[in-house]
Amino acid sequence: MVKVTLIPGDGIGPEVAYATRDVIDATGAQIEWEEVNAGETVYKEKGTFIPDELIESINKNRIAFKGPITTPVGKGFKSINVTLRQKYKTYANVRPVKSIPGVKSPFNNIDLVIMRENTEDLYAGIEHEVTEGVTEAIKVITEEASTKIAEFAFKYAIENGRKKVTAVHKANIMKITDGLFIRCARKVAEKYPQIEYEEVIVDNMCMQLVMYPEKYDVLVLPNLYGDIVSDLCAGLVGGLGLVPGANIGDDIGIFEAVHGSAPDIAGQNLANPIACILSGAMLLDYIGEKEKAQMVRKAVWAVMEEGKVKTRDLGGTASTKEITAEICRQISLQK
Ligand code: NAD
């Protein structure tokens, strides 16, 4: 039995996190879920966003599955997501973006992976008011974190049969910070001559991605560009309801979808659970249950290809619960 901390989260979080738990359980994977919540919901009950029980649970289990957590805008405290990523040094945020059959989108041939540095950059949250009407944020880029994410990207490329790594930056303007980021990436690239390496400036990257996304394979980016480019890429394959993610550190994995808590549709049984469910498949891969991970992906693909059960974001009318049940049914057919 592998113990996994389950954080339901806020907004649509519980709906999609429980859907994922049900799908993973349907594969027969030997997982014991230890549920401890964090976020706005917990704050209202306990006066803290990250309760001690959660820290204890993650410290012990080293694997967590997380629903999205709401971060109120501009209220002067740091995002819970960012806090967890920094606390557990999950330096790599891995986001595979792949076209799914049966999903209406401008492209059907996308298969790329975003490697977003996950601990620093403007996301370090170091900002202050200099004087009234003047504010300042500090962009932190270190050799250590930049080298680690580049190493991670190249190792991933080798282990997963990928051919090319593209480092994304704005070093023409951010000469010192992004300059360091690409110097580190270049140095790492020299150790992997079998993988093609290229550099693209982030604004051009956005245009390239919306015109020729099939040209890209593994993208490695500093935190903020990674955040923005992830949503852009999600849009290319049918939206945020479909793109999974994992926060990986040296001995820890926290799995969560790219999307947020979607307050506009929360509690209505409307959310698409596929992004979370595919993050669950990444969790299964991480714990070595590769066959069960494939079962989950195959089931999702089958449901999408058939096209009868789709949530509203994909033009269908199915509820979160209906599509979850259909994915579980597809898993049972594979047994
Ligand atoms: P969001 O991703 O929650 O929603 C953006 C749009 O996509 C909304 O229209 C929403 O309805 C839709 N959407 C998102 N996920 C969907 C799904 N699974 N199925 C169907 N539609 C879906 O982004 P936002 O509105 O900018 O952020 C809401 C909150 O989530 C904010 O507090 C933000 O800070 C937080 N957030 C958390 C995480 C995280 O926990 N990892 C990530 C991003 C945003």
UniProtKB/TrEMBL annotation:
EC id: 1.1.1.42
Gene label: icd
Single GO term (MF): isocitrate dehydrogenase (NAD+) activity
Cofactor: Mg(2+); Mn(2+)
Protein name, as recorded: Isocitrate dehydrogenase
Species assigned in the record: Peptoclostridium litorale DSM 5388
Lineage: Bacteria, Bacillati, Bacillota, Clostridia, Peptostreptococcales
Family: Belongs to the isocitrate and isopropylmalate dehydrogenases family.
Enzyme class: oxidoreductase
The entry's keywords: Magnesium, Metal-binding, NAD, Oxidoreductase, Transit peptide
